[in-house]
Each structure stands twice: as structure tokens, then as C-alpha cells.
Amino acid sequence: MAISKVYTGAIIGLDPILVTCEVNIEKRGFPSFNLVGLPSKEVDESKLRIRSALINSNFDFPEHKITVNLAPANIPKKGSLYDLPIAVAILKATGQISADLNTKLFMGELSLDGSIRAVPGSIVLSDLHKKGIKYLYLPKENDMESLLITTMFVKPVGTLKELIRHLEGIEFIYNKKPQKLKSNLEFDILLDDIQEQEHAKRALIIAAAGGHNLALSGPPGTGKSMLAKAMQSILPPLTEQEQREVLKIRSVVDLVTKDVLKRPFRSPHHTISKVGLIGGGSNIKPGEITLAHRGILFMDEFNEYPRSIIESLRQPLEDRKITISRASG
Q1: pLDDT, tens digit, 9 for 90 and up, residues 191-231
Q2: Among the CATH numbers 3.40.50.1980, 3.30.230.10, 3.30.460.10, 3.40.50.300, which is that of 2-167?
Q3: Taking the model in full, what pTM does it have?
């Protein structure tokens, strides 16, 4: 009987949870591969990806009774980021690697040939440095996010074989150095491009300067939507603290792009659902209100929104924060 432990993470809302991937291999009984710890369907399907990735990377897959526990067991585990830590834990339990994994965190989806695919949430999980984690191993495809992590030593890996050779000291993977992104604030519409409309432009400037809400009313074709889009160009660049907040949100929904320094501009259609606007769902995700954090939430054709949607805006407008309460947490 052999047991190994590898660290990974889970995301509840915007909060990171340290997850311990425990693997136990018994040579008694029929060969099997079982996952416990509230795994979702995509986590349960990882068994086939892991087996193929290990074999195609020239590692031995144990034909014994394998039990994988994702602790704490009371938190649902969703997503494909658990492929890599489970594979590493199996190799550790079978003695194919001997490296010390106590301060390392792994995340990534395995392809059948052993390559590692991108997964969302690395910026959120980087907050687990508070739990003693020093190294974060993530896919090379998460290159954009790895440049923005300052709390851990980030090591991007492309394949499972490359990772194991590094852990065994055969190859060296350099730490990804964090970089300050250069401001490249280009906008489709500038306020100076709009002719006339002086009163409306003054209202936009006052609202942008004071962080106020703004209601634009008038007949169709008078440029209300164009004015709202131009407001993004007169807002100041995000501060470092604001960048961190926006990056965490975008990382969870996999929206980290090169225009990360721009303040968000979200324009949901009036047929959006209540969950789509305020967030929630069985797997809690941020809604349009949260995605517009530190930016602009533009609700065109406001009178077309259902009453329930409009009523749900009351608390965020008063408290300037959105609170979602669910039985599952």
C-alpha cells in the first residue's frame, strides 16, 4: 500500500480553497480507479485522460486498486484543473518520482498525449501563498496570467514529461518573472469624436469624475449608446489594486486578455436572466454586475428589462456590492 499527497486548489465564487489530492494504491483486489471528494462529471472523466497521458508519456500506469481523494471532501470539485495534480500524485505513490512536493501547487488539464492545456483561475489560486505554497505549476497556455502573478514562483509547463523531468532535477524550468503590463488604451469611440451633445458630454464627465450612476433618455438615434461607449475613454487607468481585483474576476471566467488594463465595459441584452446579471447558478459564477467591477455596466433599453431584473439592482446600487446566498455556500 502506497499513499501520496499533492496540492491543488478549488475556487468558490472568487475565493481560493487549498485542496489536497491524496492517492492510495492497493495491490490487493481487482484493478480499479475511483475518485471521491465530491468530484463533478468532468473531474470523474479525468480518469481516462490521466491513464492515456501517463502511458503516452512513457510512464507506468499501476494496474492496481487506485483511490483518489480530493480533500476537503465537503467542497464540490469542478473543472479539468485536477488532471495534472492527480497524475503527479499517482507517479509519486508508485515511486516513479521522489521529489519533495510539499510547497508546490499543480493545475492543468491533460491531453491524451501528455500535453497540458490551459485552465482558468490561476490568478485566484495564487492567493494560496498564504497557506505556505511557494511554487505554482501551470500550463504554458496560461502565459498571460503567469506574467501577472507576484505572490508565487510561477513555472509554466507544456507537457507532463517536461514537468516530471524538472521535478527530478533532470531539466530546469525557469520561473516566469512578473511584468508590469504597458498601457495600450485604444478605444473605438472617443468623447472628442462626438459632435454637439455638450450637455450629455458634460454629464458623462461629471459621472466619470465622481463615480456616479447615469441615466440617458431620449428618442432613438440621438446617440445614447455611442455616448455610453465613449465614457470608457475618459475613465482613468486602473490602479494596481484595481487591476488585481479585475484580474481575479476575469481569471475565474477565463477572460484574461491583452486589454486587461482597460476598465470593463459590459452591455448585457435585455433578455438576460437574473442569474446572468447578478451571478449564481449551481456552480457559482460572477454575473454581469461583477464582470463590470471597476468599469461600466451599460443597460441599454432599460425599460425592456423584466421587473425582477430591475428589482435585483436595488441592493447593488445601495450597498455598491453584490451578495449571493445559496444553500451550497
Answers
A1: 888 888 888 999 999 999 998 999 998 888 888 889 999 99
A2: 3.30.230.10
A3: 0.85
